[in-house]
Amino acid sequence: xxxxxxxTLPGTVRSRRLxxxxxxxxxxxxxPPAGERVVGTAVLVPGFTGSKEDFIALGDPLARRxxxxxxxxxxxxxxxxxxxxxxxxxRDALVDDVLAVADAAAPGAPVHLVGHxxxxxxxxxxxxxxxxxxASLTLMSTGPAAIHQDEIAxxxxxxxxxxxxxxxxxxEAMRAVEIEAGLLPPTDPVIAEFLHARWLGNAPASLAAMxxxxxxxxxxxxxxxxxxxxxxxxxxISGVEDYAWPLPWQVAMAERxxxxxxxxxNTFHSPNVEDPDxxxxxxxxxxxxxxxxxxxx
Length: 297
Hints:
- The protein is an alpha/beta fold.
- The protein has helices at 56-63, 91-105, 118-129, 149-161, 167-180, 189-201, 204-216, 221-229, 247-257, 271-274, 276-288, 290-293, and strands at 13-20, 23-30, 40-45, 67-72, 111-116, 134-140, 234-238, 261-263.
- It has one domain (13-145, 219-293): Rossmann fold (3-Layer(aba) Sandwich).
- The protein is globular, with a radius of gyration of 18 Å.
């Protein structure tokens, strides 16, 4: 989960509901200032228990580099409605959603796809199914397969309690565990209330389905490497440490993909939040020179 450091939207960013062929999704949409040319469109996909606000600080710097960017709440996340049936949250369904958002954001044009954490697994699946729909793929703070074993234990516990406790009760239990571990809540009451509201906005079926996918994800790096070798520009971005997928796993993934790996200094699991300016510049430079970054034969 990422914790945004501010929630006030810059002038180049707006919050809205995006109508797609698969229903409406809550998005943060950034556009270049009036009169400036749009050079490309990006779709940004958040991770487990995250939301579109995880990318709020990227919107303005990307817009000022000429990029139209759409960050979404996936189905069942925060402000995007989702059904109560766990079967509605299969990976295929999540991939269909991302493709529908891409079609609505940039009809007929390829998009730069960015996936953070669990969102990276979803975006990898998009690339494996529809590589021709993408201008590029960026995997941020994600890994080659299932999440680290320490996190799997926590996910299993969450899956056990979701059917018997309310989201508020689960929230209170998680807060107690974090405080006991020395992880204090944000001092800014606005951010603290947002995190609470975001958690309560998650559909329990979505949480359970995503948790299961995180702990059972197969290694698909070989399959993705073939897509990259066929011409899809790709990039791996990470912090200097990561609790979810350790840095050596991400280094090895980039090597197996034969793509560049950018480590954003002084960041951890969320470079998009912890150093948004460097992260946005890295993305914009990659998108502007995708052929330079691509592993083309």
